[in-house]
Amino acid sequence: MKHISKNDFIKNIAITLLILQVVFLSYGQSKDSTRIASPIIFSGTITATNNGISLLPNFSLNKPALLFDLSLAKGRISFDPMFRFAMEGKPWTFVFWGRYKLINKKNFSMGIGAHPSFVFRTITVASNGTSTEYLTSQRYLAWEASPTFYINKNINVGIYYLGSHGLTSDLTQYTTFITAKSTFSNINISDKLKLAISPQFYYLKQDEKDGIYVTGTVALSKTNSPFSISSIVSKSIQTEIAGKDLVWNIALNYYFKQ
Predict the structure, then answer these.
(1) In this structure, is residue 94 part of a structural domain?
(2) 19-33, 42-56, 164-178, 234-248, range with the lowest pLDDT
(3) Three-state DSSP class for 19?
(4) For the chain, counts of helices (H) and of strands (E)
(5) Is residue 185 part of a domain?
(6) For 106-136, how does the pLDDT look when each residue is reduced to its tens digit (9 = 90+)?
(7) Rounded to whole angstroms, how far apart are CA atoms 123 and 82?
(8) Would 177 disulfide with which of 162, 181, 199, 238, CB 3.0-4.6 Å?
(9) Residue 210, beta-bridge partner list
(10) What's the rounded Cα separation, in Å, for the pair 160 and 144?
(11) pLDDT digits (tens, 9 = 90+) for 73-102
(12) Residue 35 forms part of a structural domain
């Protein structure tokens, strides 16, 4: 765990963003110039929630949070940064995904990706009768694979694998996350209201401890509106990993795309 000053924090994030941007642009420029260039698409979702939870229990914030999920995509490659903050403005988690669509067919896709991430915690240190708060960063490196089968345009099933490694010895060294998931979208509630449901069953192992969980996401949206309401409920079935047995939240989402 490393104490960081505000200037060091900004510097580390800026360097990470610069490196990823250079990689992204280099990939785009390396293509054959005679081929039709793919457009660069910028999109994202801004979410306000009453409870910042994570499918990895020890990463949960467990209080109101503001989430920014962004994506800069060109062809099969994308840069997908995720910024999570507590409502009072303190950073919670920053994740810098780089992803590539290895297979992209009508009925099947296979994505792979990797990222560096920073998980922030505030600790209080007492010295000579004075308490001082410090912002600390926990650093991880993670990788993923996500094969998905599309039964039709509204139903898909798949497996998602995530592995990670803590970059300092005081952190969880190895994490394995495997989930069987499905999505049912565009369920008509009325002429203008649609529902999407995504149940998941997953296995989580962190060093020597493991657990089995079930979770579900429900989202309600209105046709031609960028806003939606969603909720996540997660329940442990059997686990050795510390965390609440049952967690849930409700969120207001705003989606944009350019």
Answers:
(1) yes
(2) 19-33
(3) helix
(4) 1, 13
(5) yes
(6) 999 999 999 999 999 888 887 777 878 788 8
(7) 23
(8) 162
(9) 205
(10) 7
(11) 999 999 999 999 999 999 999 999 999 999
(12) no
Which positions ≥6 away from 137 have C-beta within 8 Å?
Answer: 1, 2, 4, 9, 12, 118, 119, 120
- Please state, in angstroms and rounded to a whole number, the distance separating the CA atoms of residues 257 and 71: 9
At position 118, the amino acid (one-letter code) is F
Closest CA relative to residue 165, chosen from 212, 136, 206, 137: 206
Q: Is 38 within a domain?
A: no
Residue 108, domain extent:
2-30+43-257
Site of tokens 């560096």: 116
Q: Is the pLDDT of residue 30 over 50?
A: no
Tokens of 141: 């490196």
**pLDDT confidence band for 13 (50 / 70 / 90):** low
Grouping H, G, I as helix, E, B as strand and the rest as coil, residue 191 is coil
Q: What is the CATH number of the domain that holds 112?
A: 2.40.160.40
Asked whether the beta carbons of 127 and 143 are under 8 A apart, the reply is no
Q: Chain-centre distance of CA 69, in angstroms?
A: 7
Contact (Cβ atoms closer than 8 angstroms) between residue 122 and residue 137: no
The rounded distance, in Å, linking the Cα atoms of 186 and 193 is 9
80 within 8 A of 71, measured Cβ to Cβ: yes
CB 213, CB 53: distance < 8 Å: no
50 φψ region: left (φ > 0), alpha (ψ -120 to 50), beta (else)? alpha
Q: How many domains does the chain have?
A: 1
Structure tokens at 258: 């350019």
